[in-house]
Amino acid sequence: MVKVLIATDKPFAKVAADQIRSILSNAGYTAIFLEKYTDQQDFVNAAADVDAIIIRSDKADRAVISQAKNLKIVVRAGAGYDNVDLAAATEKGVVVMNTPGQNSNAVAELVFGMMVYQARNHFNGSSGTELKDKTIGLHAYGNVGRHVARIAKGFGMTVYAYDPFVSKEQIEQDGVIAVDSVEALYRQCQYVSLHIPANEKTKKSINYALLSAMPPQATLINTARKEVICEDDLKRIFADRKDFCYVSDVAPDCLAELKEFENRYYMTPKKLGAQTEEANINAGIAAAQQIIAFIERNDTTYKVN
Ligand code: 3PG
Predict the structure, then answer these.
(1) Measured from the CB, is residue 21 less than 6 Å from ligand 1?
(2) Which of 1, 99, 182, 227 sits at 20 to 30 Å (Cα–Cα) from 193?
(3) Please, what is the Cα angle at 92 between 87 and 98, to 5 degrees?
């Protein structure tokens, strides 16, 4: 009997968990749920004899992977797989996949929820500003960036994008202005929304030079990863620019040091971009189906290692 562990510190919505269980059970597999765990050792123990693992932002680290003696596949139900030790998985012949695009709309909608909340002064009753006729720059034009572009146009914003992996033609066919450099994006746009992955090239890459080049009343939106921000530079820009705001669904490590700038930032208490029933259903079902396709037919679509 194939055993699948669903390890989610931040659980899927019940409707999604029920569908994952039913898809796996129809395939003759056993689903084991480990939810809201607080000790990483609980994850290591629960993974010890399973064939497959579904995770969200949970850390599939070397201990989990190396001690799971029957493990064949880890599926990150979501986009970013910086939480999986790819080297450990590859050494052990374990396939790692993500489920690209499945939770992107949820993340894009939260971008606008946070932008409006910030532009309206945290709904404190004072006069805020509107998004219409403002500029927004998409730092990367992947699945989330495209949804943000679509919604931004509905708000009447002018949309720019920078993505070295997407052609100018592809960007511009969506009615988005493609810029040639990351510097140009920050120089041009009052709002910049981050959609880059966290990797060796991008970590700490959002720095003082970029943020200080943004036009007046600048707001940075981060629904990507906290690691891409250079936090020393973030503190510096908050101190230097009274007009700079930052909203994110992941708090920086230096959050306590931002306290004096309180009305200029907002962070969700947990990473919430993808936390909708729809995104949970889409990503959870895709993860379960990808595991079945891999085990039954050796289908390695969406393999990332
Ligand atoms: C992702 O990479 O897909 C998002 O950051 C969502 O992460 P989550 O599944 O932990 O909400």
Answers:
(1) no
(2) 99
(3) 60
**Domains of the chain by residue range:** 3-100+275-297, 104-267
Angstrom distances, CA of residue 289 to CA of 4, 46, 141, 265: 12, 21, 27, 39
Query: What is the CATH class of 104-267?
Result: alpha beta
202 ligand 1 Cβ < 6 A: no
Over the stretch 13-43, which tens digit does the pLDDT of each residue have? 999 999 999 999 999 999 999 999 999 999 9
Q: How far is Cα 163 from Cα 224, in angstroms, rounded to an integer?
A: 15
CATH top class, domain 3-100+275-297: alpha beta
Q: Ligand 1, atom 11: nearest CA belongs to which residue?
A: 274
pLDDT tens string 69-100: 999 999 999 999 999 999 999 999 999 999 99
pTM of the model: 0.97
